[in-house]
Specification:
Structural class: mainly alpha
Shape: rod-shaped
Helix content: over 70%
Distance between the termini: 134 Å
Oligomer: single chain
Order of helices and strands: H
Number of strands: 0
């Protein structure tokens, strides 16, 4: 009788240990998943920030190009006007 009780107690202890181990593993897994999600969110945030910066730079370049074109057009217009004035004055 004594031996059976001991064996039974040992089994219970083992089962409890196994359960505790499983719970620890599940908690660890959950923790790892949360950490992964956090890293993914941070990575996504970085990518969005990078994309935003890229778009901003492209927009600035576009505006610069537009300004340069407008300046060139203005210069050409002024040159034409000067040429016309010279032709009128000389003619």
């Amino acid at each position: 009788m004594c031996c059976r009780v001991l064996v039974s107690d040992n089994r219970k202890e083992e089962e409890e240990e196994v359960k505790e181990e499983e719970v620890k593993e599940e908690e660890e897994e959950k923790k790892n998943e949360e950490e992964e999600e956090k890293e993914e969110k941070e990575e996504k945030k970085k990518e969005e920030k990078k994309e935003k910066k890229k778009k901003k730079e492209e927009k600035e370049e576009e505006e610069e190009k537009k300004e340069e074109e407008e300046e060139e057009e203005e210069e050409e217009k002024e040159e034409k006007e000067e040429e016309e004035e010279e032709e009128e004055g000389g003619g």
